[in-house]
Every structure is written in C-alpha cells, then in structure tokens.
Amino acid sequence: MEQQEGHEKKYLIDKFVQPVHKFIQQEKSSGIVLGASVLIALIFANSPLSADYFRFFQHKLGFRFDGVSYLEFSIYHWINDGLMAIFFFVVGLELKREFVEGELSNLRMAILPIAAAVGGMLMPALIYHIMNRTGEASNGWGIPMATDIAFALGVLYLFGKRVPTSIKVFLAALAIVDDLGAVVVIALFYTSKIDIINLTYGFLFAGTMFIGNKMGVRNLLFYAILGVAGVWAAFVMSGVHATIAAVISAFTIPADVRINPRGYINRLNAQLTRLNLIQLNDRSTLSEEQVHIFDTIKKDTNAAIPPLQRLEHAFYPIATFIVLPIFAIANAGVPFQVHADLWTGSVALGVALGLFVGKPLGVIGTTYLLVKLKIAKYPKGMNLQYLMGIGMLASIGFTMSIFITSLAFDEPAHFVQSKLGIFAASIAGGVLGYFILKKAIRKDGSNNCSHAET
Q1: What is the enclosing helix (H) or strand (E) of 329?
Q2: 379 DSSP assignment
Q3: CATH number at residue 143
Q4: What does the pLDDT look like over 182-227, one tens digit per residue?
Q5: Alpha-carbon separation of residue 445 from 228, 304, 371, 378, 451 (angstroms)
C-alpha cells in the first residue's frame, strides 16, 4: 500500500516537473520568461498597486552587528548589485569558454563577430552622444551599446532548424563580445568613487583564486568562498561595480580537466564491470562496495568535466529563469500615464535611435565592409539578407541597456525616458528582424528547391 502511494506521489511530481524541465531546455524559453517578466512589471507600474510596487524595492536590507550596519542597501540595489552578479558571473564563464575553445579562440574565425560587435557598440554611442552632449543626459551614451543575448537569440530560435547553425553561432559570438564591451564600459565609465584599499583586497582575493587554479585546485567551494566573501564583498565596498567582480572571478575558474574523455570512458567501463560482478538485490539500500563504486564514478565524472562548465551548467538556469526575471520585474516598470511628455526629451529619442538605427548600421556596415575588403568571409549559409535580420535583432538591448541606465542616471525622468527608448527600439528591432529573417528563410528555401529541381 505504502509502495503504491509512493509511486502515485512520484507520478504526480514527474507530471509537474517534466513539462517544466522540457520548457527550460528549449532555447526560446529564456526570451519568453523575460518577456513575461517585463509585462508583469509594466502591469504593476500602471495599476492601483503602482505606489506599493515602487515602494517595495526601496526597503533596505543589510547586516547589523553591535549597533553598526554593514552592506545595508535597498532591495533594488541588492537585485542590481547582488543578484545580477550571478548573471555577470555566467557571462564571464561564457566569455572564458569562448576564448579558450569556442568561436572566439580562433582569431581568423572570430574577427567577423568581434568587428561586428565593436561597430555595433560605437555607432549607437555616437548617435546618442550627438543628441545628448551636455548635462546628466550625456551620461547615457553607453545605454544603446548592448545587445540582449536572451531576447535576440530567443527570436532567432523561433525559426528552429530553418536558420543555419553558423548564423546562430555568429549572433551568439557577437552578443558575447558585446557583453564583454558592456562590462569594460561599466568598469571604466560607470564606476563612482573608488576606495583603493578595498579594491586592492578584491584583486588580492582574485589573485589567490588564479593561483589556486594554476596549482590545480578544483574544489568549487574554494572558489565560491573567495569569490563571494572575498572578491565580490571587497568590490562592493570599493565603489567599483560588483558585477565586474563577478566577471573577474569567472575568469579564474579552471577550464581544464583532470581526466580526459578517453581516460574517463576506460575508468567508467572498469567500474561498471565491477558493478556487474556484484550480486544485485531488490532492496533500496546498497552494499558498501556498491556505494564505493558509485562514489568513484561520481568523482571521476566531476574530474572529467571542467569546473568552468560545471558552474556554467549549474548557474545558467538560475541566471536565466530566476535572476533575469527578478531584475526585469524590479527595473522594467514604467508608469506611462504620468509621463505623457517623456518623448519631448532627447534621452528617449537618443536611446531609441541609437539602438534601432545605430546598432544595425554598426553591425551590418562593419560586417559587410570586412567581407567586401576580403578581410573576412561570411559564415556558411549567411548572405546580406540574413545579415540585415541579425543586425536588427542586435538592436534588442533590454537587460544590459536597462542595467547601464540604472548606473548612468540619478534623475528619475531620464531613467524613465531611457527605458521608454529601450522598449520602443527593442520591440521594433525584434519584430522587423523577425520578418526580415522570415523572408530570407523563405527565399533560401525557394533557391534550394529550384537547385534541387535543376
């Protein structure tokens, strides 16, 4: 009876968990969740609960010891400096993986997405600067520089296998370089007063992590403690934005393995052979020898996976389906009814034109020029029409653009104007990019059919 109840309970859990797991595994899911979070924020900001919505994120949280407060920040600040550090940590892991063995490891292959990303950062910054040269508004030049990798790839993955893999890789590499550029911009231009002593402590902790990597330390707890209690805390107190600490910490994580794949297979086969020789029973508990074998397999498996990829695999769902939605809910709320005149300022227009016009111009123009000059070649399957669609998707600048907005402005009106510009450009760029790619795919399919008939 108890066994039957256990099976029924497991069935109900699986019935709920499996669809969720299947949804998370889909490439487009991150964009869907992020879009839903933006919608939730907009609904709250324009509902009777608007005042409570904004007030909630101003509540302060911190640590108090002997009457003295430490790290006491608003919930909004904790989200942007604390939770977003997890997102930037994943970005750092992705960057390191790409530089070690990915699309950015070969300069000949990487030159096109790198150049496209640089062009796509400079052109929107220039357009914004031309329109906002003075006052606090001039601080926002970095806002239209960044592409939102989750949304952009989410739109691209709506086409499934109809889009050549090489084009997906090109957009992903472009967006990753774009993220690196945004991190550098934040570090150099959006950092307030710097406390040199705490900053020195932060680099000392990061240096210890790097030395641990070179000495062969593979214990993830070692990197977690030094990364959070050391690098992150020191950077928070230094005035340098904490997200930079997350990227620096990510670059210290080992990317090599103790056991190569062939060695792992040999060791695994040896353990499975031992396991087959043991008399099996129907009990739920294992013998000491079985426990030892399974424990050995587990250790060998961990030794065969680079710590960098283990962490990336573990943190990616957290960053994508927890951190980014919370960030969106906290940052995307714009009370439209109170700000009917917001488009009269140059901030919203500068951000919108920077993203919607500057970003595609920079990406498409730079890529096309390098191909025409024969410095680089299009990825397999790409043509000018695909490039135009990718360029428009690059104008989706949600997450990083809003994040830089929170660093660039103190004036609430500028903050809201910037978010309006981001929303307008991202929606327009995403929709236009989708239809350009749809037309390119249809044309590509027709050409393939005609070639087949011939």
Answers
A1: helix 324-331
A2: P
A3: 1.20.1530.10
A4: 888 888 888 767 788 988 999 999 999 999 999 988 888 899 999 9
A5: 50, 42, 24, 19, 10
